[in-house]
Design brief:
This protein is globular. It has two domains: 151 residues, Rossmann fold; 131 residues, Hypothetical Protein Tm841, Chain: A,domain 3. The protein contains eleven helices and 13 strands. The chain has 286 residues and is α/β, with parallel strands linked by helices. The strands form three sheets. It has a six-stranded mixed beta sheet, sandwiched between helices. Strands 2-1-6-7 form a four-stranded parallel beta sheet, sandwiched between helices. A three-stranded antiparallel beta sheet has the order 4-3-5, with helices on one face. The model has no long low-confidence stretch (mean pLDDT 92). This is DegV family protein. Keywords: Lipid-binding. GO terms for molecular function: lipid binding. Pfam families: DegV.
């Protein structure tokens, strides 16, 4: 029986319950640590990845899904005539979306598969996936669903605090500017991704900067508390969830108890480049 199906990649911040409830197909990226390669979310969990990263001799690497895997997945999802909405992490972060687009051409299913650049990753990508899934459940059409996703993209926000610049410099995502900053004493940086472009929004020193970062976000949420339904807090840390982030989530709930807050480990692609101790707050307004 034909229907509308959702396809995404493993960098999206989705719980196992959400994936199961909405029958979301997730194509895993690959991660390589000290010569060993794993399928993200299949052969290694996010927590296991961060632990291995903390012990690794070299900066881990991440790879987009093979085009063959994309082709097979698309063929499987469309074999009954179903249409597919594929939502993937920002092109600036990975070639995954290009692999998906190439796979669509190779399968000749361009009339059935609709590819979306989320322009972000993690829970922001997850928000778009979940919105599409709920729209499908509500019986909305493809054009209506795609329009809804575009509306979300216009108001989505990512604030990422990096407290250790070693990985981001080695990864080369921010170019020579990050290399100059890293030599400054105890510098932290805030990254944002407006319109899918990674940029350094602010920089400062130590704990004072981190506290100001938290306050700015809480002030933003306070100003938009009736327009925000969901917030994601994603982090890079070994062991249990940092108490600081659980406390931060409670502060958001104190602003508006109706806001759903998900606190969870981020994906390997973000962890690799953000480094230990990093955390991000993601949301959009309605």
């Amino acid at each position: 029986m034909s229907e509308i199906k959702i396809l995404t990649d493993s960098s999206a911040q989705l719980t196992p319950e959400e994936i199961k409830k909405y029958h979301i197909t997730v194509v895993p990226l690959s991660v390589t640590i000290d010569g060993d390669t794993y399928l993200d979310g299949v052969e290694i969990t996010r927590q296991q990845f961060v632990q291995k990263m903390s012990e690794s001799k070299k900066l881990p690497t991440t790879s987009q899904p093979p085009i063959g895997t994309m082709v097979d997945t698309i063929n499987e999802l469309t074999k009954d005539g179903s249409e597919v909405i594929g939502i993937f992490l920002a092109k600036v972060l990975s070639g995954t979306i290009d692999a998906a687009r190439q796979a669509v051409k190779l399968t000749g299913k361009s009339d059935l598969v609709h590819i979306v650049d989320s322009e972000l990753t993690d829970r922001s990508e997850g928000f778009q996936v979940l919105a599409a899934a709920r729209d499908i459940a509500a019986g909305k059409s493809i054009p209506e669903i795609l329009a809804h996703i575009e509306k979300i993209k216009k108001t989505q926000r990512l604030h990422l605090l990096i407290v250790n610049l070693e990985n981001v410099v080695k990864g080369g995502r921010l170019g020579p500017l990050a290399g100059k900053i890293v030599n400054m004493l105890n510098i932290h940086i805030e990254l944002q991704m407006p319109n899918g472009h990674l940029k350094i929004a602010k920089k400062g020193r130590g704990k004072k900067f981190s506290l100001a970062f938290d306050k700015r976000i809480l002030d933003e949420i306070e100003a938009n508390k009736e327009k925000i339904k969901e917030v994601g807090i994603s982090y890079v840390a070994t062991g249990s969830t940092p108490q600081k982030l659980l406390d931060f989530a409670q502060k958001i709930k104190d602003i508006n108890s109706k806001i759903d807050v998900l606190v969870r480990e981020t994906s390997p692609i973000i962890a690799t480049h953000a480094g230990m101790g990093a955390y991000a707050v993601l949301y959009y307004t309605e």
